[in-house]
Amino acid sequence: MKKFLNKAKDSYKEFQDNQHQSGDGGASQQPMAQQPNQPVDLGPPASIDVLRYRYHHGTNLGSIFGISSISFSSSFYLISSHLMILILIPLLPYIKLTIPVLEKWLHGSMFPASSKGGSELDAATASLSELGLDATRSKFEQHWANAVSDSDFTWLVNEAKCTSIRLPIGYFTLGPEYCKGTPFEKVSGVYANAWAAVRALVARARSHGIGVLIDLHALPGGANGDAHSGSGTGKAEFWGSRGNVALVRKVLGAIAGEVRGGMDGVVGIQVVNEAVWGAKHMYEFYEQALETIGGVDARIPVYISDAWDLDKALKWCNGRKRGGCPVVVDTHKYYTFSEKDRAQAPQEIIARIGGELKQLDGKIGSLCERGEAQVVIGEWSCVLDGKTWSRVSPQEKNNLVTQFGRAQSAVWQQRAGGSYFWTYKMDWMDGGEWGFAEQTKKGNIPPPAYLCLPAHEVRNRLQTASERRKELGDGAKRGHEGYWDGQSPGQRFEHWRYGEGWELGYSDAMKFFCV
Fold first, then answer.
1. Where are the alpha helices (DSSP H) in 7-117?
2. d(CA 100, CA 169)
3. How far apart are the C-alpha atoms of 91 and 5, rounded to whole Å?
4. What CATH number does the domain located at 47-68+95-451 have?
5. How many Cβ atoms from other residues are within 10 Å of residue 123's Cβ?
6. If residue 156 lies in a helix (H) or strand (E), which one and from where to where?
7. Could you read off the pLDDT of 120-148 as tens digits, one per residue?
8. Is the dihedral of CA 92, 435, 419, 215 positive or negative?
9. Residue spans per domain, the chain
10. Model pLDDT for residues 434-478, shown as the tens digit of each residue
11. What is the pTM of this model?
12. How far apart are CA 329 and CA 345, in angstroms?
């Protein structure tokens, strides 16, 4: 697929009822010039298509390949090869997950007492000083190898219903060659086998049916001033630096080459995490990143940061020329850091959730008319500030946490293409309101209902879909043809294209559902 398709949110019944109202998302449909009857030959979606384009429900895995210290108090013309998402929406299963750069508040055990700060660089530097290269490299490699056990994967699939992992890494994760001329050059030997560890994790995840989003979390110079950018300078010096951009393009090209070369299971590449607000030349960098990755394999979805301005990011996406890599916008949702959040009671914050992602209004729902616009919630949690909790009695907290988590889950599943809870792994499991494990076990962040269907129910629904296919297809085609023939009597339309697209979409939807 060349674009990340807009995920319809209506059931098939709503689709059927509404199809008379518009031909391509609201724009008037014009008669098409008669062309030779040459149906497009499109095969069924491959397993990697399903892995990449289903809804992503999941979690961050905690700080594994990077460390930092953070403290928190329409109608259906054959426009694209896989428009199946407009048919059988109630049947589609989805989910995803995240692992970030090493963070001290999550994995303090990786930081020697002599660490001068809380960044990945601080941890590696202190370990080298205390233990030497061999012991430090062994320590880090064990951390990477043991980050996710087989029992973890089993729980993520069977209990949490995750279908993919978001894996934040640093530019240094690709090894010493990519550390030259950077603050990580002196500790680069620690990362000699880091990329091999990433490959191994991706392969293990894939063997469990889980995909991986590779997130370039730490950029040279820092995409923001926080320690999770890899170093503790407190500055966002990546932006505007030709040398930094050139290095990151080299890194992205290498990752894309690995994916194309057989790194099965990668659902996308995220080119930056939490870009600082108003980052200089950010969208120029995004175009360069898309050119680099697309030059290797234009089928790879590319995830970008909204830099805390979702509306602007969506406008940029809508205004781009079509073609090349699919683009997905990553936005983060927290309700614990701002003074506005702290000044409100839990009930007031929960009441705000239903209005989230309104920036998508008017920007999604018609690939033809508006272009693409897809969003994932890359980070979110059930955490509220102590000042917020002070406004209610302690006895009310558990119930309010449940309401908060479920309200967010409902909106993300309704309006976004996926969500990743922060976080799964830390030294202090199960993690409280930060913990994906704890919140999942308590039922506070339920997965989409269709992911919980038992195997026999999946088979029953597939059987029903097969039995009703002709009835639904004939009705949709008659309605489509009758509407447009009535709108433009005497005009010639290639209605067979609609029929072909409908059949393709129905088949693809069934394929997605049965995986």
1. 12-18, 47-53
2. 6
3. 17
4. 3.20.20.80
5. 30
6. helix 150-158
7. 899 999 999 999 999 999 999 999 999 89
8. negative
9. 26-43+453-515, 47-68+95-451
10. 999 999 999 999 999 999 999 999 999 999 999 999 999 999 999
11. 0.84
12. 30
